[in-house]
Each structure stands twice: as C-alpha cells, then as structure tokens.
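quick one, two chains, predict together pls
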Amino acid sequence: MLSGVLLCGTATAQQRGGTLTVGLSYDIDTLNVYSTGYLGDVQATVVEGLLAPDKNANYVPVLATAVPTLKNGGIKLSADGKKMTITYKLRRDVKWSDGKPFTSADVKFTWEAIKNPKFTAESKDGSDDIESITTPDAYTAVVNYKRVAPDYASTLFTFGIFPKHALEGKDLNTDVYNEKPLGTGPFKVKEFRRGQYVIVERNPYYWRKDSKGVQLPYLDQIVFKIIPDSNTLVTQLKSGEIQMTSSVPYAQVTQLDAVPGMNIVKNNVLSWQHLDFNFKGPASLRDLNVRQAFAYAINKSAISKALGGYPVPLDTVVVPVFAASNKNVPKYPYDPAKARALLDAAGYKPGPDGIRAKNGERLSYKILVQAGRANDELAQQVIIGSLKAVGIELVPDNKTGVAFREARYKGGYDVFYSGWITSADPVYSVFFKTGGVNNGQGFSNARIDALLDRAENTLDPDIQKKALMDFQVELMRQLPTIPVTSNLSVIAVTDKLGNFVPNPTNMTNFVDTSRWYLKK
Amino acid sequence: MNLNYLIKRTLGTIPLLLGVSLLLFGVLHLAPGTPMDVYADNPSVSQEALDQMKVALGLDQPLPVQYTKWVTAFVSGEWGYSIRTARPVTTEIAERLWPTVLLGGSSFLLALLVAVPLGILSAVRRYSSVDYGITFMSFLGISMPVFWLALMLQLLFSVHWRILPSAGMQTIGDGSLPDLLRHLLMPALILAFASVAGWSRYMRSSMVEVLSQDYVRTAKAKGLTERKVVYRHALRNALIPVITVVALDFAGILAGAVITETIFAWPGIGRLFIESMNGRDYPVLMALMMLGSFALVVSNVLADLAYAAADPRIRYD
C-alpha cells in the first residue's frame, strides 16, 4: 500500500517535456568524442558506449547486456594466461537516432576506424591492445586482446560506438559526424553554432523506457551555452539565463548559495592535486631529504582552507573513493620544525637571505601552475609561503595553454603543481612508470615499475589491490610527488531538475541524462 | 588623389605583407609548444597516435619547407584546415568575422559619433564646468577596467532588472533583429566607452591648438560667428591628427576585442584567436594574423584618403 502511494507520488512528478539550459565554460572543438581535447559533456548525451561508469565509479551495462567478468564468462583467459577474450552480448532493441538498427558490426567498425592511422584521434588508447574482433551474430561481439588488460572498460567501447552505416568509407577527420554525431543516446544534435551553443533534442528512437513504460528521455531538449568567462557563468545563473553549470570555481560558491532556486551539489571526483619534482632539474631535487622537507613543510589543511574547505587533504595518489586507497602509507604531517631539521642534517645551511644552500646550490626553484586557474594559483601562494618558512625559495613561473603543457611533458619546470582526473579504473603507470606518457618529471624506479606491471596485467582483484597498496607505500617512500588534496567538483543546478546524479569520473555528469526531468 | 597612387600603394603592400608573414611564421614556431601538446595533455593518448598526427599535419618537415608550402597555399586561396577542429580555416574565420565586424563596427561608429562632438565641446568651452565634466568622464573611461564595468552593467541590467541578456549573441531559437540588438547593446556600449574617452581627449587637445592659431583669430576678427569659425575653419585641421589615432583603432576591429568577447560570450575573432593560440593552431593563427596585418595596411591607406578629404592641401601623386 505504502509503496504504491510512493510510486504514484514519484510518477506524477516526472513529467515529460521542458528544456534544460546548461552553461559550458569551454569552447567546443569537435563533437567527436574520440578527437576532442575536452571532456565530452555534450557528446555524452548523444553517444553511448557498451558500458558506462555510474555515480560510484562502477561500470554498468549500457548497450551491452552485462559487464563482462571472469565469473559470468564474459572474459576468458588464454591457456597460458597471457591473453584474454571478451565477449559482449548486445541489446537487441537499440536503434541509431536515424532509425537504423545497432549491431555488433558497429562495434567492430569502431575499433577499425579508431585504429586506422589516417584518423588523427586524440584517444586511441586501448585500440593497440586488441588483436581481432569477430561477430558470430548481429548481437555478439568477441574481442580478442593481445594482453590481459584489466583497464579494458575505461577505454575504447566505453567512450562510444561509431555508426558503421553512416561512417564507412568516410574521412573521420573532416566528416560532418564531428559536427553532428549520430548516436544511440537519449538525445541527438539539433543545432551546433560554433562559439555559441549546441542544442540537443529528444531522440525518438531511444531504447530506454522508465519503469512505467514511458519512453525516455523525459526532457525535450538540452541547450549547452558556451560561456568562457566564469564570472559571466555565475551572472547567467543568477539572472536565470542558464540553469546548470558543472564546474563552479570554489571562490564563487558562496555567491551562488544565496540564489533562490539554486542547488549546490558537491561531487567527489576521481581527481587529486599534487606537487611534482622534476628529476631532470636541479640536483638537490634528487636528494630525498629535500623532497621530504617539502612534504613536511606544506600545510595541506591551509590549502584546503584557502579553497573554502572543498578539497580534502590527501596522503596518497589513489583517492579514497577506491578500495585500493592505502591508509598506511608513509605520511608527512605538517611539521616545519622537522623539515628544517632534515635540511640542517643534510647540510643545507641558511644563507644571509634566509635561503638555504649547499655546495653553492641555493634551494631556489621555479614553481609552475597553469596560469588563470584560480584554485591552483591560490594553492600556489600557500605553498610558496609554507616553504619560505623553512628556507626554501619558490618563484612562480606560470604558463598557459600549450606552453604550460609543453613544460609539463618535457620537464620545463623545477616543481609543478596541478591535478589529474582519471577514469573509474585508473592506470597509474602513465604517471609514475619509467617513460610513462604523462611522466614528464623523468621519475624512474624499478620496484615501482614492477608493482605497476603486476597491478595492470591481472584480472584478479586481490592481486591487483595488493600490488596497488604496495605501490603507494613505495611511492610515498620515494616521494617523486606529494599528493596534496583530493577534489570536489561543485555543480550549480536549478532545484527544478529531478533525478540528477553527478558522476565522479572523466565520463562527465551528462553520462546518463535520459531520466532527468524538470519539475513544473 | 588618383588611381595611379592607389595602385602603387597596393602593390607596395605585397612585399610588406610577405615579410610580415615570414616574421609571424618564425615567431609562431619559435614559441614553446606545438599543436601536439594539446593532445598529450590527455592521459589516454598514446605516443603512436601523436606520431601519426604529426606526419598527417606535416609538422615533421623542416620549417623552411613548411613555410614555402604555407605561402604558396595561402596565396592560391587554400588556407588549410584548423588543427583544433579539422574544419577549413576559411569557414572557421568567416563564421567568426561577422560577429566581430558587427560588434566592433557598431561600437566604432557609436564612439566616433560621441567622441568628436564631445571633444569639440570640451575645447570650445575650455575650463568651463562642461569641460571639467567631460574630462572627468574621459579619465573614468580610460582608467576603468573593461571587465569591471562589464560585470557592474551585467549585474544591474541582467540580474537586478532583468531587462537585458548578460551574454551571448542571440536568444536561442530567436534570430530576430531586435533580439540581436538587445544582445549587442551592452558589449557595444562598453567597447565604445573606452574609445570615446581616448578619442575625445585627442579631439579636444587638437582643437585647442588649432583654435589658438592666427588664422582662427583672423577669422574671428573678420566678424564670423563662433559656429562658422569652429566648424568651417578649425574642425578640418583639428581632425587630421585624430584621424591617425582613429584609423589605427579601426584596424583593431578585425583584431577583435578579446576581453569584451570573452565576458559577453560573443562568438568573434578575438576568442577564436585565444583558443587557437592556446592550441597552437598554426593554420588558423597565421590566417588571423595575416588578416590583421592586412587590415592595418588597408586602414593606413584609408587614413591617407581621409587626410586628403579633410585637408585639401594634402595631395598624393
């Protein structure tokens, strides 16, 4: 009886119709999810993958009927345990937004298109791991991997599936698909005006229905307005011109809290801020004593406080959302006296200006953050102040755009403060393994390499967890990086929006919009 | 002024623009970073993908080869493809040109219509309360940061009174002219305000100087009315130095108003330039900068024409 009443209550609340207006803080380059330089907010409403991460960063099936595992037989290991085969069973009721059926041929085509050297995509990750794909029938795709890849879900087929019938033989670099992607998602692109807005409208062929059999999505349209200035974004929220934006700078949260009808949603994201040392830089940075002094000198809770208390101090690089986050790593609590003692013992004596030096090398470094990132620049000030107190000088050397990125990857810095956001199953070797793609600091340690290899080449969750736990201990011993805070993203959204569930991964908050609705 | 002169001037700009292009190309490629670094920022990009892209974009070739290829293509109207969006550069620029010309053009006209009379008024009524008032406003306009003024106006007109949209070029789904004008009003006013402030000061000082000259005194002594003296005799001469300043600002329209366009989410050239710069999108950047140089050259020619029109003593052969 009671549940019946409750059901009625929720059912009447979920009306169909309405337009949600969202503010985006960046100018979209392309709507092809494999070649964009941004997280695909708009794309996520249009393009679906076989799987998607949910609000707890667990994979759930979307176009596949189940998440393949060893247990359910979806993943099979080869006899020697060095290769694997994943079998996806696909939904039979899915159509592209042009009405054509979705089949396993589309899955195979997606891999072939992305692997093609002529396609200059940004995200080709995972396409090299696949040896072949067979399609025994229209709703089964068998993917043969060259290696055991536990991160298979965070790459290729989760980003999205290409429509074979619309793209075969086309040049994916310049095809109209990049402006108007054809997908199986709840919405399709109605209009894309560069530099201004994208309108997505209801996909009449969408396959999902709610529990009462009502065709989803509930919303008629979502309008994404491009507003590059964060002050203007806030103004637009206040004036009612937009109803939602997903990355409010911490400093502006209090302003928005006062706006009637506005909800501030705080979302734990799989992202952490860190201070990295360049091992190709000044020799003193290769001295563990100096790095440890940095770690003891940085007041993480002061940084958190300066940022409104939103980011939470962190002791390891694996954020607490994950089960493999190790609480028993070597810790460096804020202790400037200990930092000074360490430096004294290692022979770094304060000079006449208070800055320490040893053998003629002054402990004076350039600290790089991305210019214009208000949160990072604020943290940078706190860090500079903390280190000055122990006799280490940091000089800001902030850069924007490509200059920043080049410095980051080629090591054009001494110390570097920034953040990473990862997928639901992060691959840490890109950051910390010898020669890792994002290891611009030139850090190399054989034991860490071995532990990461073990963690990233097994499907056994226990082995993986153990290896990751050990990796964190070793990483905090070597201290190539100081984890500073784990992050919250702040989402401002109208209280009229129902069923909104934030997503912590790099798949964005728009990964499942079909059940969102606007209260009248 | 004759046609011969115009043709000579035009031909003269060709080697100039070529030299400028060589300089720009060099400077761009000397700047740290390449278009590839944007992609490398993503943790899920592989080195193979980067190498493939480098070859596909021709970035693996030596710089002189890249430059020669670029010049020949550019001259034949083939402006290439944007690295960031993979669309033709011409399309990319054409889409952003109209909003910029609209915003820049209307604020330019507005500023001109206000600044010249204000400057004259200020000069004629020198040391009066009107002059002091205008001077005060000018200094306010020169020293007030554009972003602050924009924020205040947005707060007043969009948040408090809700009578004007705070940003964008149109209400989505409404492409009408009144809607466009409503969106144009605030950014155009703010852009014009800064120009008015500067230009009216030039106009004032130039006018003051001319008004103190002998021929003006003679004209007054002959019994001409104040009006005639100012508008017929003094204004033409006073305009000449102002034309130089205004003409240079005219070229600035095409360069775009970066801050205004960003604050008001106006989809113009200025924002395209910033995005292309952040991505080192060489083809778009080169085209934009060449367009800017071209505009500067053209506005210089226009300034010369305007001198001749304002002062019959100036003749070109």
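The first helix of chain B runs from residue 3 to 30.
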